[in-house]
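Morning - LKXGUNVN inputs below, output right after.
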Amino acid sequence: MLHSNLLRLVARGGPKRWMSTTTKLTSVEVNDKTGIATLTLNRPPVNSQNVQLLVDLQSSIGEIESNKSRGLILTSACSNVFSAGLDILEMYNTDEERLRTIWTELQNAWIALYGSSLPTAAAINGHAPAGGCLLATACEYRVMLPKRLIGLNETQLGIIAPKWLMSGFLNVLPQRVAERALTQGRLFTTEEALAEGLVDEIANTKEEALEKCAAFIGSFTKVNPLARSLTKLQFRAENIKEFEKIRKKDVEDFVALASRPEVQKGMGIYLENLKKKSKK
Ligand SMILES: CC/C=C\C/C=C\C/C=C\CCC/C=C/C(=O)SCCNC(=O)CCNC(=O)[C@H](O)C(C)(C)COP(=O)(O)OP(=O)(O)OC[C@H]1O[C@@H](n2cnc3c(N)ncnc32)[C@H](O)[C@@H]1OP(=O)(O)O
């Protein structure tokens, strides 16, 4: 027993505090009829993105790509939240090595989704601030439930979203709208997001959102898959190239920023306020 546990730890590259649980935080379900895979984020209450969720997300994307699914729909098992973005608790009061791992896995998860050759869609069945918006805008199509919020609110938190993190956002919004939204740290309501083009459709239920995403993926049935994916990747190649150039430095920039005492203090205050709000 001890021996097999040890072997498992060695296989994972040694014990890691923030990867202590072995239960997967994502699940994949492939529809037999359509061949479309639904990838569900399942870290209640708000799918905040800790290292394990980000690693599991990458592994699920890999699984979907290798099982020859026709497309990928990203959604959430939480009733009112798609994803609350990075897990602030994991970034708070921690060491540099852990911050490095968090950011590296965020980068890895983003590039796995943004650079996927499969058709991708997000069924946004709840709020999607910051890192939640990042995942949604890495997909090619977005369907969102009414009266939820989506956007990159980093400046409201006193932090800066690096260029690669804005890529998906900039792909779907006109430069002028994106610049204003990012500098304001604006969260769009679903209805505003639809009007600006940040989401493509509104659905009244999660099931309806999944159906609309499946219909989007189904629209490629008669298109040659290789021609489709190469065309998609041509559109994304410039952003991917820029990202690859700076990805190592970007990790170090994040570690330096997130470990600054005033940033750590800000995180603490933000967490306290979140907790106060949730107790009301
Ligand atoms: C503040 C960060 C500061 C510094 C980071 C430093 C450097 C970073 C540099 C660049 C980074 C840019 C890239 C991306 C960044 C991010 O993603 S940061 C995270 C930003 N996320 C948010 O601002 C969202 C915060 N959450 C909410 O607004 C709301 O929770 C919600 C609208 C998503 C959902 O609302 P409700 O359904 O009402 O749920 P509650 O608010 O009651 O929350 C339930 C429970 O969950 C805890 N929680 C919520 N969000 C997070 C989170 N992101 N991380 C950790 N924990 C979170 C909340 O405190 C409640 O906990 P309990 O009180 O029940 O224990």
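Note: The chain has one domain: 4-279.

O.
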